[in-house]
Design goal:
This protein has helices at residues 5-29, 57-64, 110-144, and strands at residues 45-53, 71-81, 87-90, 102-105. The chain is α+β, with helices and mostly antiparallel strands. It has one domain (5-144). α1 packs antiparallel against α3.
Length: 146
């Protein structure tokens, strides 16, 4: 793995974690949405992450020799809806209530979304720390050449 690819790996992590935080925020914002464009209540969304394999010559060569290949980062492959059951809440005065007076509420758990948001924030901060460490190493290498 080349030195500069480390920046790309951290940058991919920053992008992926920002997307996770965006989705957690969207879930929290829609935790009481009972009507969407597609009809029915909002469904919780989840981010699917996938490893990005390295495309360097060394990585390809090592994989052909059955050695472990270096990794190239992470990317968001898709955003899926959580298929867990919706939550029925008794509220006969609500405009979306059924004949029995129940309103189907989104399957968003505020505690889970808060934890997901905190996890994404910590992972984002870890990627920034790694990025800054690599930047400091590059600066020190330049200083050696002076």
């Amino acid at each position: 793995m080349s030195f500069l690819s480390s920046f790309d790996i951290s940058a991919s992590g920053l992008t992926a974690e920002r997307q996770r935080l965006d989705i957690a925020s969207e879930n929290i914002a829609n935790s009481n949405t009972t009507r969407t464009e597609s009809g029915g209540p909002y469904r919780r969304k989840m981010v699917v992450l996938q490893e990005v394999p390295s495309t360097s010559f060394r990585s390809k060569f090592n994989s052909l020799l059955n050695r472990t290949a270096s990794k190239g980062g992470v990317r968001v492959t898709e955003i899926v809806e959580d298929q867990r059951d919706l939550q029925p809440v008794y509220n006969p005065d609500h405009p979306d209530a059924n004949e029995e007076g129940y309103v189907m509420m989104p399957n968003v758990d505020l505690v889970k979304e808060t934890v997901d948001g905190m996890s994404a924030t910590r992972a984002y901060e870890a990627n920034i720390t790694a990025f800054n460490a690599m930047k400091l190493m590059a600066q020190r290498a330049i200083d050696i050449g002076k």
